[in-house]
Amino acid sequence: MIKRLWSDRSLFLKLIAILVLVTFAVNLSVVLFFHRFSIGPRKAFGRYVQGCTHYILNDLGNPPSLERAKELGEQLGLAFRVESPDRSFATEEGLANSEAVEFHSRPEPPLPPPPGWTPSGPGEEPPVPVREIRFGHAEGRPYMMMEEGTTRLLVSPQFPVVENGSAEWTRLFALLVMISSALVLAWAVLRKIFAPLAGLDAGVRQVAEGNLEVKLPEGGNDELGHLSRAFNQMTLRVRQNLHSKEQLLYNVSHELRSPLSRMKLSLEFLPDSKPKTALAEEVREMEGMIDELLESARLESTYGVLSLASLEMGSLLRGLCERGPGVCTLVAEQSAKFMGDAHRLERLFGNLLQNAFKHSPAGVAVEVRVETTPGWVQVKVSDQGPGIPPADLPFLFEPFYRVDKSRSLKTGGYGLGLSLARQIALAHGGSIEVSSPPGQGATFVVKLPTSGPPSP
């Protein structure tokens, strides 16, 4: 029940709750630490007692009085032990004597005279009865010992004081452990809350690479859970739309073949004339467009299986260059062998060469260069035409996109050739790119794996 209530809460409320809890834990740790251990250092305590020494000794009387010592101990929170040849006593049972105390400090210098004191006669000394002060401890309890002549006065606090430096470091380490534990716990909870973001990032990257089958795990009802569900719905809708578009394109293209076949048959019975020739040319162009549409639809569907065979890129391109309507210069390496579908690759490079011949000046050769790298074969098709405007380069491989907005058949086809070339390259596990420096023509680069397309 608690887990469900937590998972259904807003992400921002979760963050606020965690920050409040962490702040409370840190503050509570600090307060508890200083409440338990924040007592002034031993030396400061000693200096405080040292400053009050001459008042204490004066109040104890001469000889020292046990009753007055107990009264002063209750007022100041101190315990006294007086040791002298005449009289010795302690205001608290169990108070160690001077022989049992382990002293670890050097004698403190005598206190300066009280402010405003001036000697009343020659040779008079200031009223400071203490000549030596030493600090030590016994059984974990701090002591300060003052001597004057044969009398020793031991003073020990009745409140807890840090015994030694190691204990202080131990408690400081405990404080750091408590604060660090609280922060680590907060980090672990935040990491668990934001874990769906890593999956969402990976899913978005896969979609950007063209994988629309990715599906994210759907969490609770917070913002990240809603985002994961929206992402899955988006990819599902995109897949459905693409499938519907491909199916429609395939069906329409297929159905258009029947009326085109009847039109071609009817043209055969007409007498030869200019209208018949023009109409036959239109029918052939429409048939070519439908053929490209069908081929594009096949490559997008599960029926577009490639017929792979061992090919030699130089031989494949040499035949296309020889059948081309213009001048072609082929530079190919002898060992440019790879696995591919010859029919579809002829269409790919045929479309590229057709565009290059169309946009190159008369008599200027189109350059085709084949290069090999480990695992890849690369083909560059370069023309010497006017080039492609930079604004059109990002959309050049889109279906039906034409640089010439008039869509005249004299300056280009239907805008399907480059789109189909890209699909064929991708079907082989490769890529196609274009570069066109201003006024220097265009260069299309096709990169194909020598081992053929990866297994689905």
TrEMBL record:
GO molecular function, one term: ATP binding
InterPro entries the UniProt entry points to: 2C_sensor_his_kinase (IPR050980), HAMP_dom (IPR003660), HATPase_C_sf (IPR036890), HATPase_dom (IPR003594), His_kinase_dom (IPR005467), HisK_dim/P_dom (IPR003661), HisK_dim/P_sf (IPR036097), Sig_transdc_His_kin-like_C (IPR004358)
One Pfam family this sequence matches: HisKA
Catalysed reactions listed for this entry: ATP + protein L-histidine = ADP + protein N-phospho-L-histidine
EC class (word): transferase
Keywords: ATP-binding, Cell membrane, Kinase, Membrane, Nucleotide-binding, Phosphoprotein, Transferase, Transmembrane, Transmembrane helix
Protein name listed in UniProt: histidine kinase
Organism the protein comes from: Candidatus Lambdaproteobacteria bacterium RIFOXYD2_FULL_56_26
